[in-house]
């Protein structure tokens, strides 16, 4: 079965559900069942949090240093500046993840818009 196997409007949504959401949801439920009785301060959960944080940091670093797709057309300095601004906003405005993401997006898109106007 492929993404373009059927020519009906609902097929892409079903394909995304089955290929993307369902496999991750299964592992999340397995994690909930297995970790439900563990102490939050246990060394195993601390390690899991560290690994998860490292994976997110690696993905963000890849977006900044080796982007693909449309993000590759943004200049490196703009990508780096947006990531730095988002991180600074995250730290200074109460460690709110949504604030950091929104600031980084605004800096990235605003900077790109200014570059398009000037160039």
Write the topology of this structure.
Blueprint: H1 11-35, H2 43-65, H3 76-92, H4 97-118
Helix pairs in contact: 2-3, 3-4
Number of strands: 0
Number of domains: 2
Major pleated sheet: none
Q: What number is the mean pLDDT? A: 91
Which word captures the global form? Answer: flat
Order of helices and strands: HHHH
Percent range for β-strand residues: under 5%
Which segments are poorly predicted (pLDDT under 50) over 5 or more consecutive residues?
none
Q: How many helices in DSSP terms?
A: 4
Helix percentage range: over 70%
Backbone CA Rg: 19 Å
* Structural class designation: mainly alpha
Distance between the termini: 45 Å
Description:
This protein folds into two domains: 1-37, no CATH class; 38-118, no CATH class. It is 73% helix and 0% strand. The chain has helices at 11-35, 43-65, 76-92, 97-118. The longest helix is centred in the N-terminal third of the chain and has 25 residues, at 11-35. It is flat and about 55 Å long.
Structure in a nutshell:
The chain has 119 residues and is mainly alpha-helical. The protein is 73% helix and 0% strand. It folds into two domains: 37 residues, no CATH class; 81 residues, no CATH class.
Descriptive labels:
119 residues, mainly alpha, 2 domains, 0% strand, flat
